[in-house]
Amino acid sequence: MTKLTLPCTALILVFALLLSACGNNNNQTPNSPASVNASTSPVTATAELKPFTISIGNNGGSNQLKLAQSKGWFEEEFAKINGKVEFSDFQSGPQAIESLAAKRLDVTTLVDGGVITAISGKVDLKLTSYLSSGLKGINYVIVPKGSEVKELADLKGKRVGLPKGTTNHVFFVKALKKSGIQESEVNIVNLLIPEAQPAFETGQLDAWVTADPFAYQEVSKNGATIIASGESLNIPAPVFTAFRADFAKEHPEAVEAYLRVVKKAVDYEKANYEEALQTYAELKKQDAELIKVLADNYQAQNEPIPDQIVAEFQASADLLLELGFLKEKVEVSKLVDNTFIEKNN
């Protein structure tokens, strides 16, 4: 028995070794699926992410968004994460807010007043970067040439045109309070820009609360007078990147990609200011002098939202609650999310 067992055992061992050798040879065969190591497989980030589309709203004609769009930077960046890009232009905040509420829009720029209006309308937002102080260029109270109205106190009983629910409206409420005037003492006419401008120019309004380029045009071409502004009253109107909260939650990589493109546009403007101004004038078909005024006033940036801005914004929201503009308290800090932009910095 012993003599028979040893040869059998040896044969079994040899057979096992042969199988092992064959297995190793198969693993080394280039065409064999087993030769591909999962850890070194060239799987790209694009292949790992589901396709999606982001709808970007240019609210008020942002120079930086126009620049990035014209250079294809959004498409280039979003292609890396399997995303497609759609663009929409909005002349004022209410239109953009309506599209955010209907989920036709995923991201836009909003001034503090627009954010408050959106929140009061139950639009859930995340503010992901700070774009401008908005002290200049966003809020003016102008009166026609030859008007007897010289200051805000003279507006009692007068017709003042503005788009309700916008930063212009919020600014005007704050401005009136600083001047000791109740909103009820002024006849506010709710007009969007396409309606307000002809009404102002034909004498149907005693004053118009608006932004550049419209204030600039009325002053330089038609002799209108500025009786109050964000700068003169030290009432900033901070500008933010505002995402729909559910979109930001579902596509955090898209928020980061968007902010990278905005930073690229802001950096390009700072490094090539005169060239950028010329590009803006061509893209927007506007006078070069006007473009320079707008850019100088705006002072574009793309930074984390500072604590001071959050505190000032909270004070504004509390004031509007006190005045009845808001129906419930807004916790501004809960809207702010700097994590996306901090990852890019």
UniProtKB/TrEMBL annotation:
Tell me if Metal-binding is a UniProt keyword of this record.
no
Superkingdom of source: Bacteria
Query: Record's GO cellular component, any one?
Result: membrane
Q: Does the keyword Transport apply?
A: yes
Q: Which residues cross the membrane?
A: none
Entry keywords, A to Z: Signal, Transport
Q: Name one GO molecular function term.
A: ATPase-coupled transmembrane transporter activity
**One Pfam family of this protein, by short name?**
NMT1_2
- InterPro entries given in the database record: ABC_SsuA_sub-bd (IPR010067), Solute-binding_3/MltF_N (IPR001638)
**Quick one: signal sequence residues?**
1-21
Looking up NCBIfam families in the UniProt record yields: SsuA_fam (TIGR01728)
What's the protein name? Putative aliphatic sulfonates-binding protein
The family note in this entry says: Belongs to the bacterial solute-binding protein SsuA/TauA family.
Q: What is the lineage of its organism?
A: Bacteria, Bacillati, Bacillota, Bacilli, Bacillales
Residues of the Solute-binding protein family 3/N-terminal domain: 53-276
Q: What does this protein do?
A: Part of a binding-protein-dependent transport system for aliphatic sulfonates. Putative binding protein.
